[in-house]
Amino acid sequence: CISYIVRNKEEDWTWKSVWGYTSTLYGSMAVSLLLKAYELTGYSNYLKSAKDILNDTIYSDYLELRGSNNDKLLLFTTIAEYVVISKDYNSFFMDVGLNYYNFSISQYNITTNEWYYNLREQNLDFYDSHSAYYQIINIYNILKRRNYLALIYPTQNSFLANIIPEMELLVEGYLTENGTIFYKDDTPDYTESAAVNLVTFKLIELYYSIKNDEIIASTENTILQRQLDNGAYIRTDNELDGFSIWYTDNIGEFIAFYINVF
Description:
Blueprint: H1 2-7, H2 24-41, H3 44-61, H4 69-86, H5 91-105, E1 108-109, E2 114-115, H6 119-123, H7 129-144, H8 146-152, H9 154-172, H10 191-208, H11 213-225, H12 249-261
Antiparallel strand pairs: 1-2
Helix pairs in contact: 2-3, 2-4, 4-5, 4-7, 4-8, 7-9, 7-10, 8-9, 10-11, 10-12
């Protein structure tokens, strides 16, 4: 797994998205993993690598902000995580993080509580269950790093914390009876979203005392029912042959988070 990641990196330790430009998602994930390794071991080389990748991700992406708002929000929360753990209170990182926040939050409609997937869909005033799925991931990233955000970006954190209950009411309406999301036509009951929803609605319950028992039970049942004998997960509810497993990264990440936190 590690050798595959290394083989597919760019020279500056960034990774390209399927659209060909630098992925802030992959960069943020790498930074967060290295920060966790540093916390667990105390090895300074992990912290240095986290800083290098964060720098390279920012410089590769920053001059031309593009892509989805949730990737930028993730990088904003990751910068807060890095600054707190490293104690590197560099105004460059903090200013860049704020710019990523502003880019992302500019696509949030405070009247409807809809967080558009990207600028194109915002311009079209288009919001659907696919948008809701990524809004749920936004909620997860905000709550997962709420302590870091409160220290580095208290004003922004306060605003985000205050809008989560209203956002929850909105996105809840897009869930299927299985606790999943209609992702697109060939993925009408997206298995992976069950893991995302399980953790996110559990975090909402934890921090806001909003009971989500029915949603949590549905997502748990879906996760248990759709795992194949080889450990993989089917993509959607009507694919039992195991060939269309599609993405499964979020299931692994979110189940591990769920076990560790709850």
